[in-house]
Each structure stands twice: as C-alpha cells, then as structure tokens.
Amino acid sequence: MKLAISATGKNMDSTIDPGFGRAAYFLIVDAKSGDIVEIIDNSAAQNAGGGAGINAATIVSGSGTQVVLTGQVGPKASEILHAGGIKVISNVRGTVGEAVELYKKGAISSSD
After folding, report:
1. 58/66 Cα distance (integer angstroms)
2. Burial (0-12, 13-18, 19+ Cβ within 10 Å), 39
3. In angstroms, how far is the first alpha carbon of the chain from the final one?
4. Which residues are CB-neighbours of 19 under 8 A, at least 6 positions away?
C-alpha cells in the first residue's frame, strides 16, 4: 500500500506540510517497508492563484496512493481524493517518518 504524505522536504525527516494543496512535496511511501518510492515536487502550487488543491489531488490520485497523510485538505481536493478511492487522514503533525510509524502501528486513522 502507498501513502502520500504532504511534506516540507524530500526525506523522512521532513516536517508534515500543514496544507495539502500548497505542500512543497508529496512523498509517496510504501507503508509496509517505510521506503520512499516517489517524490512529487509540488512547489509550483505554492504561488498558484487558485486551484492548488484540485491540482494536487489530481496528481496524488495518479500516483497509485491509497491513503493521504496531511495537515488539512480543502473540500474540493477531498472530493477528488475520495472519488479516487483514497482515504484522507488529516491533522497529522510531526515528521514524515513519525507519521509513517504511527500509521503502521494503527495509532492514526482515517478522518473519513
């Protein structure tokens, strides 16, 4: 299973980006191994006038992700993710590595 995690940087020590649509990066992580399998650069969205969440949700939906871990997701992005069968877990804080470990232990679960 793949997790998409909004992140401020490109590694497991990066902080969870509090915003989904304007996150700097999405780290696609194999939930079983905990390894990063893909890094999606979303930095262009940080200065986008509008539609950042929709664009981010579309990109993440195409990555084969089953679960998103992030701070907050807007309603339009959430709708796109849910339509793609992706579970959203919001209000996640800390580092990417910490979030993956908490998810693997079942300590955080879907907001759906």
Report:
1. 13
2. middle
3. 18
4. 6, 70, 71, 72
Q: Cβ(20)–Cβ(71) under 8 Å?
A: yes
Which residues partner with 15 through β-bridges?
95
The pLDDT tens digits of the residues spanning 29-88 come to 999 999 999 999 987 776 666 778 888 999 999 999 999 999 999 999 999 999 999 999
Q: Where are the beta strands (DSSP E) in the chain?
A: 2-7, 25-30, 36-41, 67-69, 87-89
The residue with tokens 């981010």 is 56
Model-level pTM? 0.91
CATH superfamily placement of domain 2-104: Dinitrogenase iron-molybdenum cofactor biosynthesis domain (3.30.420.130)
